[in-house]
Amino acid sequence: MDRNTFTGLFLIAVILIGSFFLMKPSEEEAKKARQIEHIDSLKKAGALKKAPVVAVKDSAKTPVVDSAALKAPFGSSTVGQEQLITLENKDIRVKLSSRGGRVYSVELKNFKTFDKKPLILFDGNSNQFGLRFTAGSTVINTNDRYFTQSPATTNTAGTDSSAVTMRLSYSPTQYIDYVYTLPATGYKLGFTIKTNGLDNVVSSKALTLNWAASLHKQEKDLAQERLYSTVYYKTTENDVDYLKLNKDDSKQVADEKIQWISFKQHFFSNVLIAKQGFDKVNIAVSTDVNSADVKQMKAGLTLIDNNSGIYPMEFYFGPNRFSTLQKQGYNLEKQIDLGWGPLKFINRWAVIPVFNFLQNFNWNMGFVILALTVLLKLVLSPLTYKSYLSMAKMKVLKPEMDEIKTKVGEDNPTLLQQEYMKLYRKAGVNPLGGCLPLLLQMPIIFAFLRFFPSLFELRGESFLWMKDLSTYDAVINFGFNVPFIGNHLSAMCLLMTISTLIYTYFNNQVSGATGQMKYIGYISPIMFLGFLNSYPAGLNYYYFLANMFTFLQQYLIRLWVDDKKIHAQIQENKNKPEDTKKKKSGFQAKMEEMMRQQQQAQQTQGKKK
Questions:
Q1: Fewest CB within a 10 Å sphere: which of 76, 216, 293, 578?
Q2: The pTM is what?
Q3: Is residue 316 domain-shared with residue 367, that is, in the same domain?
């Protein structure tokens, strides 16, 4: 092929490709053409005598339906165009769709996503909501049927509420109504299903309500958001349970009535409440979603037959703020994970009331955490003092313990521990005195580990360089996953780790720890660096403050505590007659008895050899 032939063919290809794109009709023109073609096909089939003209803000493709489908039960509902109706109050904006008569989308007007976009819980065809039943031999799924608005959106008489009814008609006197009511404020949307004249149409009185939604990402850290998102439910006996958080899960509840189902995200919830309860429930949660969504949640609910054909329900679309959920009733606040056992008790009856009290001062959230730390340290200061004093006593005894170790040797650890216990007994020192106060504080430390990640009030709150106290504050983004750390390094977590290492160093100085014990304390801070690196900056900020105030407390205690006086007191205790000394604690007696038995067993084994 010569150059001229190649050039000619190339130009022809350019012209053909260019004309294809230039002459291609716009999406709007194509949509109108499809609508005209569909209406013409319906006219020819005799389904429509006159095509209505409808202003559609947002429409989906209208399915092509044959005449046989139109003659089936609810056949006319297979034809239509999707129209969106907006209900709006001070707090939420709800869009209803004529296709399925369902809630198409929900926007929370007072909140934004982490990147300052409108906060929409779910929208579009990624969510489904509708009744499933059999009429004649036809299985009806109302999610795929077209409802009509009857009557138009109005204000309920004597109130500031807006109401709209979406109707699925079988005949003029036989229909299903979805009645939605929205008050002037708040996060609740009233929802009532009414069936009229369908006793001889619906094959079974049991109606199944299917609900599914793919929930959108709202927070910075998708992994953490998924970790705190799952399906919750409450029985009419006030028991609240949930599906697994860290994996796909499903469950069937058939032996008790369910009052509400919640598609719970980290900081927001979508709750369907049945005032009369649901009979049988099938629920599932899955992470098989696109990268912009958190999880897919599903629920199949059997409506309780009450012979009236009326099923009163309501939705809650709103924040997982403890106080807000509590005001809604139905124990919705039990969705918030406050920990188990004593952790839940501490958070529910101690931490939350104190936190709410501090919030009344309208301080920045960083100062609220600071005040919370100060109050907690003041309450725990007696334990801190006892812990320091016990470690100081052990440091004073260290030279005598070294002498015992040299005398007995390390070949017989049981005998060595027995001699140590004798020394502790004579000196009036409890070897666990420094550990017990710390162990008593551990429930509070772990309670905060649950409290802060669930604390809605931290969401979007900034302090110093931390733009959002509810998530990590990355000082370095690696762009790839680093083993043990992740794809970033949190500044406050790093400061917390450094302060904990310094705290461990000074504790070793006070206690006089040597050998392996000297280095064991350094392992935990390093482990927590990886564990807490993706946790909220607010939590790491609290742990950092706790370390700082512990330094201050120990410095002040050190001014009051004199090692020479402690040594003199120990020597005085050693010289006291045995009958004047404090009685052995049960723990000390058990320890000595256990060591004595070990010593005897070793001696017996040695004789056999």
A1: 578
A2: 0.77
A3: no
